[in-house]
Amino acid sequence: MAPVLLAFALLVPAHGFGGPAASPSDLGRFTGHRQLRDVPQVRRDTAAKAESTSSEGVETVETVETKSNLLEAFWKFLRPHTIRGTILGSSAMVTRAVIENGQAPDWSLLPKAMLGVLTLLCGNGYIVGINQIYDVSIDVINKPFLPVAAKELSVSQAWVAIIAMAIGGTWLSYNLFGPLIGSLYAFGLFLGTIYSVPPLRLKKSAIAAAMIIATVRGFLLNFGVYYATRAMLGVPFGWSYPTIFITCFCSVYALVIAVTKDLPDVQGDLENKIDTFATRFGVGTVATAASAVLLANYGAALVWTNSPAAAAFRPKILLPAHAILASLLVRGLIRLRRARYSQEGLKAFYRLIWLLFYSEYFLFPLVGPIEAQDEKDAFDQQVHKVLEQRFNLDGSFTNLYNEGDDSETWQRDATKEAREIVWGRRFKVRIVDSATDGVAAEAQHRQNRAEESRLKVRGLATGSEFSSTQSSGPSQSEHDAESSDDNSDLYFQQDSGSEPFEGSPS
C-alpha cells in the first residue's frame, strides 16, 4: 500500500489539482525518466498522424466510390429498359415452348438456359453500346445522362466492353446451340453494327432503321429462342400458332418502338441531320400514327381468335387483356396531347409503349391452351396410326403424354419417334442443319434409337447388330431418316387396319 501512496504523491502537483502544473523538467526529475518533449511538438505530431489516417480513409472511400460509379455507369451503358425486354421476351418464348412440349421441364437444362440468357444480354449490350459510341454528339443534346456522353465511361472503356460482349456472346451461341443459332446471332450483331457505324449508318434512314430494329427484336429474338429451346428439349422444330402470333405482334410493335424512340430526340436529330419520321412529320403526327398502328395490332387478336387457328388461343384471356392494354395506350396518347407534346410528355409516352410491350410478353404464355382437346385427340389418333403402320403396334400400350417406368424402353422410344413424325408433318417445317449441328446430331441419335426399337419389335436384329449396321456409313442412316420423313404423310392416309406401306423400312 505504501508504494502506491508514494507514487500518487509524486504525481500530484505541488499546489494541489487547482494550482499550476509541474514543468516537464520537474516531472522528469521526480520520476527519474528522460524529459518529455515540448507539448506543442506533441500536438503537431498528433495532428500529423490524424491527418495521415484521415487521408488514407478518404483514399479508401474514394476507391470504393470509383468502383461503384464505374459499375453504375456500365449498368446505364447497357440500357436497362432494353435488358428487361430481352429477358421477358426470352423467358416468355421458353415458357411457351415448354408448355407446348406437354412434359415436365428437365431442370438439368437450367444452367444451359441461363447461359443462353447471358448470350442474349451480351448481344443486347453490344448493339446498344456501339450505338452510344457513335452517337456521342447526339446524346450530349438528347440523352446527356448516358455514361459515354456524360464522360462517366470513356470511349476506350466502352470499346473494350462491347468487343468483350461480342466475342463472348458469339462464342456461347455457337458452342451452346450450334451453327444455325450462332449464324443468326452473328447476323443480329451485324445488323446492330451497320445501324450505327459509318459509312452505312442506317439509322440515318428512318425506314432502314425501323426495319433493322423490327428484324432483331421482332423476329430473330423470338425465332432464335423458340428454336433453341425446342432443340434443348429434344423436340423437332415446328411453328405453333401462338408462336406465329407473338412473332408477328412483336415485329409490328418493334417497328413502332423504332419510330417512337425518336420522339424525345428531335432537337439533337435535327442538329445532326438524322432523318427520322419525327423530324419529317412532327411529333404529334408520329405519336398519333404509332398509336393507331398499335391499336390495329391489338385488334388483330380478334382475327386470330376467329380464324381456323382459333382452337390454339384462349379468347377469354387474350381479348380482354388486349382491350385493357389498348385503353391504356389511348389514355397515354390523350395525356401526351394535354401536355402539348412537351419533352417530359414525350418521354412518358415512350416509356408507356415499352411497358405495354413488356405486358404482352407476360401475357403470351397464357394466350393459348397446352392443346385444344379436339386438336389433342386428332394428334393422338395420328400418333396411333404411326405406331400401327411403322411399328406394328396397336398404339394403346402406353399413355402418350405420361410415359411411366412400367413401359419398356423400346416402347417409349417408339412413341417418341411417332410423335416426332406427326409434329414434323403437322407444321410442314423442316430445318436442315449441317452435319456438325448439335441439334441435327441429337435428332439423328433419336432416329437411330427408334429404328433399333422397331427392328427389335420385328425380331430382325439385335441391338449390337443394329449398331454395327448403323456404323457402316452415315449416308444410309440419313437416307432412312429422309425416307421416314418423306413417307410419313402416308400414315395419315391409310386405315388403321391396312398393311404397312410398301416404302416403309422392313
From TrEMBL:
Signal sequence residues: 1-16
GO cellular component terms, A-Z: chloroplast; membrane
Domain of life per record: Eukaryota
Any one GO MF annotation of this record: prenyltransferase activity
Topology with respect to the bilayer: Multi-pass membrane protein
Positions of transmembrane segments: 180-198, 205-227, 239-260, 281-305, 317-336, 348-367
Homology family: Belongs to the UbiA prenyltransferase family.
Protein name per UniProt: Homogentisate solanesyltransferase, chloroplastic (AtHST) (Homogentisate phytyltransferase 2) (AtHPT2 ) (Vitamin E pathway gene 2-2 protein) (AtVTE2-2)
The species this protein was found in: Cladocopium goreaui
